[in-house]
Design a protein that fits this description.
Elements lengths: L1 H15 L1 H4 L7 E5 L11 H9 L4 E3 L1 E4 L5 E3 L11 H4 L5 E5 L2 E5 L7 H4 L24 H15 L4 E2 L2 E2 L2 H6 L5 H10 L10 E4 L3 H9 L3 E6 L7 H6 L5 H4 L2 H7 L5 E4 L19 H7 L3 E7 L14 H10 L4 E4 L2 H6 L3
Parallel strand pairs: 1-2, 1-13, 2-7, 3-8, 9-10, 10-11, 11-12, 12-13
Antiparallel strand pairs: 3-4, 5-6
Helix pairs in contact: 1-6, 3-6
This protein binds SN-glycerol-3-phosphate and calcium ion.
Length: 342
């Protein structure tokens, strides 16, 4: 009976309920970065579910493509840091150039979805809990979207999705462009309107400009640091760097195709080489003046990742950023971020 009611609720929810039509976002947003990846192997349905249980408003899948064009959730297209691929397919190790760098390993684009389904996720970081290694599979983007729809119904609150296109220029170059399949999956999940709880993100620029013409859902320009360039801009030789993108001119340009920026948190609270803090920058207020939301990355409970004044006190770090007007945080520990909400 309960199963029947859940199915009925999913059908109603997926059709056109007022809840789904509502576009207002919580403030600030808690985005489960690769799920609750501080506690579970990242980018698994179990890590996403835990993030939702802990109160995350959005979950964040990074997307790469299999050889047969299926989008799966992984932070990079090399699989050995977060799966048991080396044990299962030792003979498939190879070398590729990814974003201008030579890499040796096992690459998603060499595997079919059937092969990916035989893999199990592992914890990337040695200092985090390893006890869940080998227990969970690698989800497709469709499965992630099904999860948020199911969880939205079961929990009676809307859950958003914040997909990131990983290595878009590279995927384009090997005939496995990410953008259309991503929009098709969102379309199948009926997440196509600006008011839907979707943000598409990328560290590259040109694919976001193109996506802005292809979809109404919100777009966020991720920002790296300093003289580093988005890879597509490096390829085109435009000389655009992240440093230039956070000037007023750069932000104005971003505002022509995006709804927000996703800066590294140090671009808001900078530090010297020893980690001693400088005063906060005015990046948030300058972005807000242009109507851009600001969602910063990545917040983690472990002392090694906290900004120096907040060592051992992640709550204080969140509160400092929220007090500066930050609109959202990508966090590996949604439980802590939710407790720090204003
Ligand atoms: O997408 C926001 C944040 O996730 C960017 O960093 O490298 O974890 O994808 P990364
Ligand atoms: Ca990401």
């Amino acid at each position: 009976m309960i199963r029947f009611l859940v199915v009925v609720a999913i059908v109603i929810f997926s059709s056109n309920t007022p809840l789904r039509a509502e576009g207002a976002l919580p403030w600030p947003l808690v985005i489960g970065h690769r799920g609750a990846s501080g506690l579970m192997p990242e980018h698994t349905l179990e890590a996403y579910t835990l993030a939702i249980e802990q109160g995350a408003h959005f979950i964040e899948p990074d997307l790469v493509s299999t050889r047969d064009g299926v989008l799966i959730a992984r932070h990079e297209n090399e699989l050995s840091d977060t799966t048991d691929v080396a044990d299962k397919f030792p003979e498939r190790k190879t070398t590729r150039f990814i974003d201008g760098r030579e890499m040796t390993g096992w690459f998603v684009e060499d595997f079919t979805i059937q092969e990916i389904r035989t893999l199990r996720a592992t914890q990337r970081l040695a200092f985090r809990d390893q006890s869940k290694n080998g227990k969970f599979g690698i989800p497709t983007f469709d499965e992630v979207l099904a999860l948020i729809q199911r969880e939205s119904v079961v929990r009676g609150r809307k859950i958003g999705v914040y997909p990131e296109t990983k290595h878009p220029t590279y995927h384009q170059s090997i005939g496995l462009a990410l953008e259309e399949p991503m929009l098709e999956a969102l379309g199948r999940a009926r997440l196509t309107r600006r008011s839907d709880w979707v943000f598409i993100q990328s560290f590259e620029v040109d694919n976001l400009r193109a996506l802005n013409e292809m979809t109404d859902v919100r777009i966020v320009q991720l920002l790296g640091f300093g003289v580093e360039a988005p890879f597509d801009q490096e390829v085109r030789g435009t000389r655009l760097t992240y440093e230039k993108m956070i000037t007023n001119v750069g932000l104005s340009e971003i505002a022509t195709y995006a709804d927000g920026i996703g800066p590294w948190k140090v671009l808001i609270l900078p530090r010297d080489r020893e980690g001693n803090p400088f005063p906060a920058t005015d990046l948030i207020s300058r972005a807000h003046k242009l109507g851009l939301l600001v969602h910063a990355y990545t917040y983690r409970d472990e002392a090694r990742y906290l900004i120096k004044p907040y060592k051992n006190d992640p709550m204080a770090e969140y509160q400092r950023f929220f007090s500066l007007g930050l609109d959202g945080v990508f966090t590996d520990f949604p439980y802590t971020a939710v407790r720090a909400l204003p």
